[in-house]
Amino acid sequence: MAKRSIADIDVAGRRVLTRVDFNVPLDGGRIVDDRRIEAALPTIRSIVSRGGRAVLLSHLGRPKGVGYEEAYSLRPVAKRLEELLGEEAIGGVAFPSEDCLDEAAQAAVEALPEGGVALLENLRFHAGEKKGDADFAARLASLGEIYCNDAFGTCHRSDASMVALPRAMKPAPAVAGFLLDAEIRYLQGAVADPKRPFVAILGGAKVSDKLGAIRHLLERVDALVVGGAMAYTLLAAQGVAVGGSRVEPDMLGEAKDVLDLAAAKGRQLLLPIDHVCGRALQAGTETISVDGAIPEGWMGLDVGPRTAEAFASAIRAAGTVVWNGPMGVFEMPPFDAGTRRVAEAVAAATEAGAVTIAGGGDTAAAVEVFGVANRLSHVSTGGGASLEMLEGKAFESLAMLDDA
Ligand code: AMP
């Protein structure tokens, strides 16, 4: 169900409590990757350009929940946001204090001019945030008149700012920001009403992490392509020799069920038929290419060229592609080739008219590294959230938003 958008409400002069996901990777106070800040800019701009007052709320990392900890401060984010917004934020970006609810924070929100932006300190400095606490939410609620959720990366969580806060603010409008809107439209929309053929690509470390997604997608796709370490558990369940590849022995039963489900539904299931193997998961390891069975003493670290070509040709023919998880150890050449080939095929499919979506932290990183991110329809900013959406889970945080 589509949600009411920030674009549809009058924000002039009003304080919009905007939950963003500024949980960016930091290295000694330096922001390593600011994509999550960039991704929230359209919503912030929409508020300030119409004379609204944007009060931004976010978490960062996993502080203990007993007050301020410098390592988890949003201060570097406030600085970066101010650089990105420049003159668009009237009076700059206010970053009032070390506590999102202290007097200085309240005073800064009170004093915010029309078109102004304030970022409050890490919500998780209060234990109430993770607990979904109603009292904490009620105190936050007093800071604004409109609730806007643009924190897709946190939407699978029921933290106070995601659920209890919009509940506490009712009957105030509760709307979706542009990032959230795009994520829902692509991730839910593509799966619910795909242009066919619908091809899902799953990869990454563990089959156990992606079982829910496999099951949900198998109900809907025409073809399921599986690579990465998780493919070895499926191959082992088929009785294929996988040598020393990473297998989850306790998942073999589940893996058999998945294979049976694919067969029963008549879905095309593409598994690796050749492999690039190493002696160990380490840079500079001796490598061999293997067709079919993997000998003892070797582990599959990437799909082989015949597999990559088979995957690419299924992808190029697709009307919809959903991709979560790399095809091999893409961080470590030469085991990046399979993931690169798939990334290029997904980009080519987009250019041939397919709707293509990549999600998950590693997959988003891979498409960025391979330079194809801009050639896909959508690259999700959410890791856990995008996977849970592919599992077909309902999110409490989205249920709190007004319907369009
Ligand atoms: P995930 O977070 O589940 O998407 O898994 C991503 C991780 O899986 C990456 O760090 C990859 O290096 C790793 N990976 C992918 N293929 C393999 C493989 N064949 N063997 C070991 N690790 C792999």
Describe the 3D structure:
With 404 residues, this protein is an alpha/beta fold. It has two domains: 6-181, Rossmann fold, CATH 3.40.50; 194-390, 3-Layer(aba) Sandwich (Rossmann fold), CATH 3.40.50.1260. Helices cover 37% and strands 17% of the residues. It contains 15 helices and 17 strands. Strands 5-6-4-1-7-8 form a six-stranded parallel beta sheet. Strands 11-10-9-15-16-17 form a six-stranded parallel beta sheet, with helices on both faces. Strand 2 (26-27) and strand 3 form a beta hairpin. Helix 8 (207-218) runs parallel beside helix 14, helix 9 crosses helix 10 and helix 11 (305-316) packs parallel to helix 12 (337-351). The model has no long low-confidence stretch (mean pLDDT 96). The protein binds adenosine monophosphate.
Compose a concise summary of this entry.
By secondary structure, the chain is an alpha/beta fold.
Number of domains: 2
Computed structural class:
alpha/beta
Q: What would you say the CATH architecture of the largest domain is?
A: 3-Layer(aba) Sandwich
Largest sheet: 6 strands, parallel
Number of strands: 17
Q: On the 0-100 scale, what is the average pLDDT?
A: 96
Q: N- to C-terminal separation?
A: 8 Å
Instruction: Please state how the strands of the largest beta sheet are arranged side by side.
Output: 5-6-4-1-7-8
Percent strand: 15-25%
